[in-house]
Amino acid sequence: LLVSCPWRRSVKGKRERYDDGRWKEESADDTHRLSKSEAQVWLLVHNLLLDPDCRRKYEWSEHRKATVMRLSKYFNEILIDQFPVLSEL
Questions:
Q1: Backbone phi, then psi, for 28, in 5-degree steps?
Q2: How many Å apart are CA 1 and CA 63, to the nearest integer?
Q3: How far apart are CA 52 and CA 26, in angstroms?
Q4: Which of these, 14, 18, 20, lies nearest to 1 by C-alpha position?
Q5: CA gap 12, 42 in Å, rounded
Q6: How far is 26 from 14, CA to CA, in rounded Å?
Q7: pLDDT at 23
Q8: Would you give the DSSP letter of residue 27?
């Protein structure tokens, strides 16, 4: 989900973001702002990696580890500033 970003789209040259149940035009200032959907996915990743109960119940194959490692390219200061809990990852 984080790679394909289904909460963002481009329509007639305008970028839109799905937020609060509808598509809204995305301003230049909002480009780096996390949407609620994106934040929920990051919270899921955080829980899968750090929550002891989740770690115990989720089987970590080599494929799953590699998939999670591909997310590292999305980590930056802007993401951590908006969602500080991710700094633990």
A1: -60, -35
A2: 16
A3: 37
A4: 18
A5: 29
A6: 8
A7: 93
A8: P
Nearest CA to 3 among 59, 56, 49, 42? 42
Q: What are the structure tokens assigned to 15, written together?
A: 């970028």
Q: Consecutive sets of 10 residues in the chain, 89 residues long: mean pLDDT of each?
A: 90 90 88 88 89 87 90 88 86
- The answer, as to whether pTM is greater than 0.70, is yes
Chain length of the chain: 89
Q: At what angle do helices 36-50 and 62-69 cross, to 10 degrees?
A: 130
5 is written with which tokens? 């970003």
- CA distances to 13, 43, 53, 58, 65 from 35, in Å: 20, 12, 27, 26, 25
Q: Beta-strand (E) ranges in the chain?
A: 8-11, 14-19, 22-25
Distance separating alpha carbons of residues 67 and 65, to the nearest angstrom: 5
Single-letter code of the amino acid located at 88: E
